[in-house]
Amino acid sequence: xxxxxxxxxxxxxxxxxxxxxxxxxADLVSLxxxxxxxxxxxxxxxxxxxxxxxxxGYSPCAFVxxxxxxxxxxxxxxxxxxxxxxxxxxxGPGCGKSLTxxxxxxxxxxxxxxxxxxxxxxxxxxxxxxYLGIDPVAGLSDHLMDNVPISKILINPKGxxxxxxxxxxxxxxxxxxxxxxxxxAQLVKELKQRYSSRFVIFDLPHLGTADALSFTxxxxxxxxxxxxxxxxxxxxxxxxxxxxxxxxxxLVLNKAENGSVE
Length: 262
Prior knowledge:
This protein has a single domain, classed as 3-Layer(aba) Sandwich (Rossmann fold), CATH 3.40.50. It starts with a strand and ends in an 8-residue tail after the last strand. The chain is globular and about 45 Å long. About 30% of the residues lie in helices and about 20% in strands. It has helices at about 45-50, 60-80, 95-110, 130, 140-145, 175-180, 180-195, 210-215, 235-240; strands at about 1-5, 25-30, 35, 40, 85-90, 115-120, 155, 165, 200-205, 220-225, 245-255. Strand 10, helix 9 (about 235-240) and strand 11 (about 245-255) form a beta-alpha-beta unit. The strands form 3 sheets. It has a 7-stranded parallel β-sheet, with helices on both faces. A two-stranded antiparallel ribbon has the order 2-3. Strands 4-7 form a two-stranded parallel sheet. Helix 2 crosses helix 3. It has about 260 residues and is an alpha/beta fold.
């Protein structure tokens, strides 16, 4: 079990034919020098990132190192299997899964030979753009419902060259139907196959929703985030049972009193 505690600052908080989502290609000189020709670039506020406990707002410290340890262990398990798509979910709401998804994706992007794409797949309550202080032009639901090209949605935070965000924007009420649609399945497949060096992280709703259970078959593996003092043993057992057909590569114990990562 990955235990995340004080070092983390006590985190609060049916179409038969589907067209290609037209994901833009970056002009790659090397992974050290990526230039995005179509992806929108935005500047993030370091002050806001610190307030939101996002590691891009911090200098090297125990808080950042804890996520790097989590990254190393998750990537080791993923690489052993040749996997590159990962979903982050939790047994219930409020366990810190979205922040874990953001910081894990950022940590992966810091590796010299990796790129990371973070997708907000919580269609009923997208939050990643709020954590990062981003005002998206459109979100994932706009692609699924209104055919907005992915190239118009992707965002690269300035100064983080190996990190791209597929944000959400507006919440939708028919989210479970959209998640289970062929268009969503095709998008995940395209994201998975586009670049061999890219890891794709999906922030999902919690497992008490039909959305999460519909989405997990699309990905290679799952990380489950639980909260010490809140998630019960029964809730944890039910969550693990719900994921019995999906590879579980990590169990993050969030807001733990013990500040170590095991």
